[in-house]
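Let's do one together. I've listed all components of the complex below, 661 residues spread over two lines.
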Amino acid sequence: MTAKPRTLSFGQAINEALRIAMETDPDVIVLGEDVAGGGARTGDDVDEMGGVLGTTRGLVKAFPDRVLDTPISEMGLIGTAVGAAATGLRPVAELMFIDFLGTCLDPLLNQAAKLRYMFGGKARVPLTVRTVTGAGMQAAAQHSQSLYWMTAGIPGLKTVIPATPHDAKGLLLASIRDDNPVIFCEPKSLLFTPGEVPEGDYEVPIGKARLAREGSDVSLIGMGATVRMCEQAAQELAAQGISAEVLDLRSLAPLDEEAILATLEKTGRVVVVDEATPRCGIASDVAALCVDRGFDFLNAPVKRVTAPHAPVPFSKVLEQAYMPSPERIVAAVRELR
Amino acid sequence: MNLSRDQLLDAYRRMRMIRAFEVKLTELVTAGKMGGFMHLYAGEEAVAVGVCQHLADTDFVASTHRGHGHCIAKGVDVAGMMAELFGRATGCCKGKGGSMHIADMDKGMLGANGIVGAGIPLTTGAALTAKLKRTGGVAVAFFGDGASNQGAFHESLNMAANWKLPAVYVVENNGWGEFTPTEFVIPVKDIATRAGSYAMASAIADGMDFFDVYEKAGEAIARARAGLGPTLLECKTYRFFGHFVGDPLAYRSKQEAERWIQTRDPLDRFERRVVEAGLVEAGDLRQIDKQVDDEIAEAVAAAEAAPLPDPADVARDVYVGEAA
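Okay, and this is what the predicted structure of the assembly comes out as:
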């Protein structure tokens, strides 16, 4: 008899990956705003917060010297993490929300991403930046963006976005152990989503997409929170007699071009679903790839389902109108003939 | 003064090398043999050398767009630097960095930097590594007066003081931020006083005097190595050339520049002091001058003869493993 599959939330899976990474490598440190969050204090009526969403809870007690609360000082903390990574540590820095990228872009854009190249291959920057992305919690315009297209567009950085607790754990372990700077996106609408997570140490390779569902009529390509939307749309389409395949990109840079072309070749139709705004983004990139390298496989135009070219709104009804949805995906598929 | 004759000669050799290297660069740029943006350090030699004489290869320094001096002071190979500035495959960065990104991690040189203030958090990170890994090392940031107005400076100093990191922040106050006088943009007379906001130790050195820099940097570095936390060391100095090679210098009075160059040249002052004290003969210094000139001539000849990078390598060294 096999053991009952174990279920963890997305956030718990991340916590477990951090714990394993720190247990297996003494150079791994965790730093960020409130990553301990009171954990250094003791008393009957106080406990640590473990980050604003509780993701790093318990780590400071296990690794008191390697979990560092920083000031609310993103330029300082991300820049320090880059310097530490270049000189022998393997930091996991937390940028609480990817919207805060504006305060600390230089250490990522001009330092972490470029040191190796500028130094003729003599540097390595094994840095992971964990950051929460996306809409769905009524966090409004400055705490809900999906800015991974910015980091994915910077040579020298890698950018990943898991869609399941299983991949959150394995991709985070792979990111931490990668010798390059990796932006690890945590879609906030998934953080409390449960899923099966194996015990122990495993990695999900960076750069490999995951075939989430097999189908033959159309390919739905998603990332992060939109993968679940694609799966729900595929169920609805199945009821209408359309067989949809779902590809979870998992890694935005590098992009698994072969997996994208393979599903296009199989179905001849592609709908890309991205929570981000439409211009200069991942959806456009995938569409361009399909036209550039997969033109002969295409039986219909490539459709993009994205957020509008607008900031993320607060009101729930507006936020829902803003985000892609299974209904919009189904509608996009119905437009393809 | 606790410097041996050999140490004095080494310090002079490095300062002379910085000066001669850069004078040669002005010739090469004027002759159209070198391209790119180039910012010269000449005039500030006593700062880089006075600080780096206390450092080993295992200690890190981060530099600025005005980085040649820090590289030479930290021991980066001069022939590799020259080849880099010629854009050759044999350059210390394989021709991918150039003047503003010249670096050598093996020498603890975290790079010149094209972004004002960006080396300061890198230094804070290197100091965090030294502290957590207990390497006994220190990390030193060199940066200008202008960088002390950047958020990166203030955020770094706050964190480093809070964590008592083994770091030294050396502000080279040369009186000019590009073309704007420092006093136009900084309300405090001494940048060192900014350390007070972070309960950090500070000191002011005459950046045109090797011995004053050496002494005060020594104290700061000893404090860092002893686990007593970081220091902000302000060195009052002057850049002999303009902001960049080709700067018409319309904004700066000739009299001001002449006054500094004629009366406070760090090489002249060093020579007067050691020769008058009978520590070194003037002849020893002339011999070093000759050796330095020969070494630079060889570096130029080697660089000019060296192969150019292969265009096929344009996207190499972006990633470790190059998977992306």
